[in-house]
Structures are given as structure tokens and as C-alpha cells.
Specification:
The protein is α+β, with helices and mostly antiparallel strands. The protein folds into 2 domains: about 120 residues, no CATH class; about 325 residues, no CATH class. The protein has 13 helices and 21 strands. It has an 11-stranded mixed β-sheet. A two-stranded antiparallel sheet has the order 1-2. A hairpin with a 5-residue loop joins strand 19 and strand 20. The longest helix is centred in the N-terminal third of the chain and has 28 residues. It is globular, with a radius of gyration of 25 Å. The N terminus is likely disordered.
């Protein structure tokens, strides 16, 4: 065999290197703008059949075609293959192998159908009128939604009339994670994750040193408090009769849900140095740009559930928005348009707070503040352990929990109680359903979600995505829709993981 010369190897090594460099340059932009886990509509096996089953299957297929072409798919929950009238989130997916009982299975299906109906409510609202007219000659979006309900019931009755039809939905009711494996492979994740872990550890140390469960000292701040008075005992009387369904999930009336959110609504305190430190309401401008109205401080509420041992616990999410996280210079990779924080209260079955949490609406800067009844496990089985800080003692009947954030970065630096009697000077805020953000007024006749098809809010992307793409997270630092938050760069962890409390805490019995 002829031995190739060193000159030959140098020449071809150079060509190989050039080709590889060009390949990566072409590929990397696709890594941070593409590879998103986009929602893909599914079709019923009854497509093409005669009678009501075929008509309803065709209706869902036609509706999804219009929704897809109009780019109005709601990305917060996930489609269930072969069942276009069902959607699933991580919490409901956790029951897939546990619903052996007839009533439990029926309840599980009904809840997934409710998730689909909820998402379709916003998708239909965001459809252009011309697209809606093609689906219904009455040109009435309300009739479209009615048909979603009716046809969903018809298909559901047929699909699950026999117990042996359950295996397919159990298999397909899956909520995919928020990590893109290809990015981690190309980013040499086993090596680069060590450097990322070091950066996370440094941030944990800094956050610990700055946090205290006491009021800030010498801060010029804005305070936002809930409007109106509250009779705490009357609210408890409204909530406590709440029953649970066959899965053990509380079934709150609209009045009880409202009462719960008022019971634990916090005071927000923001160190004020720039206008971007004001809380506001996102809206679409006449020019089709997203903005935040700081003259209208709204707190967006979202009810969720989690699992802890054998218990199903209620979670109250309070979500705020700022116009921006202003940059500290041209090299600031974390600043940009839009910022926000989610403050979550997890309640025990007696409606007492068990865990407080804060996370930015990008999924960044997650912090947990357990109440005394929770004990942190000696070993936490996460590649990137969460930041756990001390929670103050708060008597909800007498005190608000105050969530105190520093200027510009909006990092939560203090969590402390403040008397319900002493809210003088605070700006009143109103509580509003988070779903409003999924269909905001866009023009005279149209509506549009503030979240894109990939769950990201357009324009909120951060420069850090060019560095942290190799973690597998889509557009790190960008604001995204609830239900799509990865909260760790190392390993895999989600804000709505139904088993995360069991992985981190033990309950202390007094």
C-alpha cells in the first residue's frame, strides 16, 4: 500500500477542517431558531367513514388544517396521537398507567378533552374570520366551538366504548420534554456541561448571599397590592367544601378558585430605578408590535396541580410582566425586550402553604422556598439541584407574602411578610386569568396570542441563546408560554414536573 505524503494529509486535513467549519456555520443558526418541538395536529382513524363519526373526524381535520395554515396553534399542551379531541400536559400524562378503574379512566379522558377544548377556544378566537367562514357557513366562531364539544363527545363515546380500546390512548398520552437532544450531541454536552455547571454553582452562591427573608434596606421601590378588602374566614368557607374527582383532583367552582387566588395573592415590591421596573399588561399595538402597558398593572393567575406522595396538591401561579430587562451595555447577553416572574404557592390538602417558588418566565432563575413542614432530602436526584432558600413564617389571615425584586434584573432577593393592614401607598393590581394572554386583541376584528408556535414570545430572544444552545433548551432566556418551561441547563427538569416535590422534599409530621 502506498503511504500518503505529509503534504497530502495537510492539504486534505485543511479541506476537511474548512468543510466542517462551513457545515457548523450553516447548521448552528438552525439550532437556535429551529428544532423546536412544534405541535403537530393529529387525525382520527375515523377519517373517511360515513355517518356522524366520519363527519366529526373530517371536521377536526378541517379545523386543524385552518388552524395550522393560520399559525394559531396553541402550544401550551400536547396533542394525543389519533385523538384530535384530546390534549395532555405533564400532570395528566403522569396518570396514564394508573387509571385502571372505570371511573378514573373516564375522568382522565374527560380532563384531557377539557384541555383540548380550552386550547381550541383560543385557537378559534385567533382564527381570521375568513378561515372560520370556510369551516362554518354561519361565519360564527361560537358555533365552531360548539361543534368541537359535540364532535369530541361523539368520537369519545365510540373510541372508548370497550375497555380494550384504552391501550392506544395510554400509550399516546405523552408530554415530551423541553430538551433537544441533537443540540446536546453537537454541543459535546458531556464536556461543555461541566463548564455550565460551574456557572450555575456561581449563580447559586451569589443568589444565596443576596437573599434574605427580611425587608430590603434603603430601597426606593414600587409596591403593588391586591385591590379590595378580604374576609379571610368567608373565603375559607367558600373553598373548604370543594370535592375531588375520581383521580383525586380538586374540582373548584369558579367562586372557590377566585377565593383561593385572593387568599394568597402577594404584594409585589420592585426596586425602582428605570421605567422597565413597572409591572404591566402585554398588548398588541396598532403597528402589530407587542408592548406592555404599565398604566394597567395586572397579575395573571393560573391554576395547576402537582403530586406529592399519594396526594394531589393545588398550585396557585401568579405571573407578572415587565416591559424589558434593560441591558447593562452592548455585551449584556441577558437583557432584552420583555421580562417576567412567576410566583407559585403550593397548598397542602388543608389549604395551607407548603411550598413557595419563584421563576422567571423564561424558565430561568428557579428558586424554591419550603415551609417548615417540608424537609429537603439529603440526596436530590437531579443533575442540577435546584436552589433552595429559607421561607419566612407567614400567617395568611394577617399578612401578605411580599415578593421583593431588585431593579433591572428583577431577581427575587427577599421574601417576607407584610401586614394586611399596612398597604398605604401601594398601587392596586387586578387579578386576571392567564388565558387572556393566549388571545389578545390584535386589530379591530382579530386576536393573536403573545406566544409563537414554538411557545416563545417573538422579540424576547436573548443573546445568551448563541452560547447556551448546547444545553438543549430552545432559545434560553426567551419568554415562553406556561407549560413549556425547562428549569435546568444540566440534566432535565421542568417547572410543571408532577413528581418534582417527591424528588426534592420529605414532609415532616408534627
Amino acid at each position: 500500500m502506498k503511504i500518503l505524503s505529509k503534504k497530502y494529509w495537510r492539504m486534505h486535513r485543511s479541506r476537511c477542517f474548512t468543510f466542517s467549519a462551513v457545515f457548523l456555520i450553516c447548521l448552528l443558526p438552525n439550532l437556535w431558531v429551529g428544532c423546536a418541538k412544534l405541535q403537530v395536529p393529529t387525525r382520527s382513524p375515523h377519517i373517511g367513514e360515513s355517518g356522524p363519526l366520519g363527519e366529526c373526524a373530517d371536521f377536526f381535520a378541517s379545523l386543524d388544517k385552518q388552524i395550522t395554515e393560520a399559525n394559531v396553534i396553541d402550544p401550551g399542551v400536547f396533542r394525543v396521537k389519533n385523538y384530535p379531541y384530546l390534549r395532555v400536559d405533564r400532570f395528566l400524562a403522569s396518570f396514564s398507567q394508573e387509571v385502571d378503574d372505570k371511573d378514573a379512566f373516564a375522568t382522565w379522558i374527560d380532563r384531557m378533552q377539557t384541555l383540548d377544548q380550552d386550547a381550541r377556544k383560543y385557537e378559534i378566537a385567533n382564527l381570521p374570520s375568513s378561515a372560520a367562514a370556510e369551516l362554518d357557513s354561519a361565519d360564527d366562531k361560537a358555533s365552531l366551538y360548539d361543534k368541537v364539544v359535540t364532535c369530541g363527545d361523539i368520537l369519545k363515546t365510540s373510541d372508548f366504548q370497550h375497555a380494550n380500546h384504552q391501550a392506544g390512548v395510554r400509550k399516546n398520552a405523552v408530554a415530551p420534554d423541553e430538551y433537544i437532544t441533537l443540540r446536546r450531541v453537537l454541543g459535546i454536552y458531556p464536556l461543555t456541561s461541566m463548564f455550565i455547571y460551574r456557572g450555575v454553582s456561581i449563580w447559586h452562591r451569589e443568589a444565596r448571599s443576596r437573599y434574605s427573608p427580611e425587608p430590603p434596606v434603603n430601597w426606593q421601590s414600587i409596591r403593588y397590592g391586591p385591590d379590595g378588602q378580604m374576609d379571610f374566614s368567608l373565603i375559607r368557607q367558600t373553598v373548604e367544601p370543594t370535592k375531588r374527582d375520581a383521580l383525586g383532583i380538586p374540582v373548584y367552582s369558579a367562586r372557590a378558585r377566585q377565593a383561593l387566588f385572593r387568599m394568597y395573592a402577594p404584594v409585589w415590591e420592585v426596586q425602582f430605578t428605570v421605567e422597565d421596573d413597572r409591572i404591566g399588561a402585554p398588548f398588541w399595538t396598532a403597528d402589530g408590535e407587542l408592548d406592555v402597558d404599565t398604566d394597567q398593572p395586572l397579575i395573571y393567575t393560573l391554576l395547576s396541580f402537582t403530586r406529592f406522595g399519594k396526594k394531589i396538591l393545588t398550585q396557585l401561579n401568579y405571573i407578572i410582566w415587565f416591559p424589558a430587562r434593560p441591558k447593562d451595555g452592548s455585551l449584556d447577553i441577558y437583557g432584552g425586550f420583555l421580562d417576567g416572574v412567576n410566583y407559585r404557592v403550593t397548598l397542602d390538602i388543608d389549604y395551607e402553604p407548603l411550598l413557595y417558588e419563584t421563576v422567571h418566565n423564561c424558565g430561568c432563575y428557579y428558586k424554591a422556598y419550603p415551609a417548615k413542614r417540608l424537609q429537603v432530602r439529603s440526596k436530590i436526584d437531579y443533575a442540577e439541584p435546584p436552589l433552595i432558600l429559607k421561607a419566612p413564617d407567614v400567617d395568611p389571615s394577617k399578612d401578605f407574602m411580599t415578593v421583593s425584586m431588585e431593579s433591572r434584573t428583577h431577581y427575587v432577593q427577599h421574601l417576607y411578610p407584610s401586614s394586611r393592614k399596612l398597604l398605604a401607598g401601594a398601587t392596586n393590581y387586578s387579578l386576571i386569568d392567564y388565558g387572556q394572554l393566549r388571545s389578545l386583541a390584535f386589530s379591530t376584528d382579530d386576536h393573536k396570542s403573545m406566544f409563537g408556535q414554538n411557545s416563545i414570545t417573538p422579540g424576547s430572544e436573548r443573546s445568551e441563546r448563541y452560547i447556551l444552545w448546547l444545553t438543549g433548551v430552545l432559545s434560553p432566556g426567551a419568554m415562553r408560554q406556561w407549560g413549556r418551561h425547562a428549569v435546568a441547563f444540566i440534566g432535565r427538569r421542568h417547572f410543571d414536573d408532577p413528581f418534582y416535590m417527591d424528588s426534592i422534599f420529605l414532609e415532616t409530621v408534627y
